[in-house]
Amino acid sequence: xxxxxxxxxxxxPRGWRWFFERYGALLALIVLIVGTxxxxxxxxxxxxxxxxxxxxxxxILRQNSMWGIVAVGMTYVIILxxxxxxxxxxxxxxxxxxxxxMNAVAESGQSAxxxxxxxxxxxxxxxxxxxxxxxxxxxxGRIAPFxxxxxxxxxxxxxxxxxxxxxxxxxxxxxxxEIGSGLLEIPFIHINKTADDPVGNPxxxxxxxxxxxxxxxxxxxxxxxxxFGLKVYSIGDNHKAARYAGVHIGIVTTAVYAICGLxxxxxxxxxxxxxxxxxxxxxxxxxxxxxxxxxxxxxxxLQGGAGxxxxxxxxxxxxxxxxxxxxxxxxDTYYQNMVKGLIVIGAVLLQVRKPTE
Length: 357
Description:
This protein is mainly alpha-helical.
């Protein structure tokens, strides 16, 4: 079986190129944070400065954690050499279906806890099923990933737009909101300390942030330390060589898209519970673009065969900090996506212009 392509980087002389390949995204994030702090010091009065406060970074993570979870699944897909354009529509379909199912269970006289668990099951198991639909369409139907997921993107969105008539779907079980809006106190860590309050406040992390961090850790461990992760790399690096080495391309491909569906299901659970509702026409909109952007900015090769989940998490933070900076500078929202697009194009250009090995 072909070796993990990222391992080749570890065996090469550790020069500037090795450092850029390994830590370029992290370096870009550090430069961005320092630059934003300088801009804030220049533009914002001392009493109004908030960028470097821990709570601001927690807010950045919370605001970007749901599509960031989707980006972890997208990392697997792109390392494999594929693409998934349906994840945003998948989030809307799963979130809306979960609320419909939960409301039906509650209205039948069952307990609120059973209704909530029903919604959890619909999101997570439904995500796997929809991912399997994508995977089987691509692996057994032999349809190009772009075309297959472009089709399912339209299908999944229509399946929730129809029953909802394009309107909002509201949850009727109040405890459901706790999943997406709850906070966990981190012991022994305090923030916002001042001279008047040396103790500060305990660090409280939102559940979506904890879920994002957990998915990143598990996703990286699976890629780095399991035979499945090695197979994903080998298929993306050299499809034919992987087949000759005995890798079952169809099974691995289907499993990767199921993983991507599972991350979309988790995002749907968090998104629908955080607002206790789903907007059938807009929930999940552009999730696929944001996820792909984070993966590319993190250095994962669009041609497949190389990439890491932790650098995708860095890509999520780069997009989040950039948005935070543009908002702080009062840049019109309509132009913020233009900046994001320029960052993605720059990241791809850096990949294309790297010297061949």
